[in-house]
Amino acid sequence: MPDVDQVAYEEACTASDIVIMAIPYTAVADTLPQLADPIGDKVLVDATNPLNDDWTPLPLDGGLSAGEVIARLAPRARVVKTFNTVFADVMTQAGLDRHGMRATAFIAGDDDDAVDLIAQIASEIGLAPRRTGPLINARHLEGMAHLNIAIALGQGGGTDAAFVYG
After folding, report:
1. What are the residues facing 51 on neighbouring strands?
2. Which of 10, 20, 74, 137 yields a CA-CA distance of 20 to 30 A from 32?
3. pTM of the model
């Protein structure tokens, strides 16, 4: 394993062009407010899903999505919701190949340039990007993730499943 420098979240956000929020959603409210200034108007990728400890959906106040809550906590950031519907077990070159098709990265966001940038990155890492419209659609993407989790864990389907949008 290569040596990796460890830096504080604030330093990492300041030094980065893109910030990926890939922590448990339940830690977002304690973590993100201190990072709003270092993130500023950068692209902030929300890969979270609002889940309880038992992996069931965590309802959010007002019917908001995690993506919308994150956008409120980092109001200048250009929030893009994606990667939340793809299990970590699928995030390999072999796992992204779904019988000749690529696993889909659904992407929602209000800033077209930010969505285009993340779609390009998703494609470069082997996913098939699918733009889904504005950030309010993060509600649907989180619902898709909840369904995928329910099938994988609740019905024993396993975490090697992925959505493929043809």
Report:
1. 57
2. 137
3. 0.93
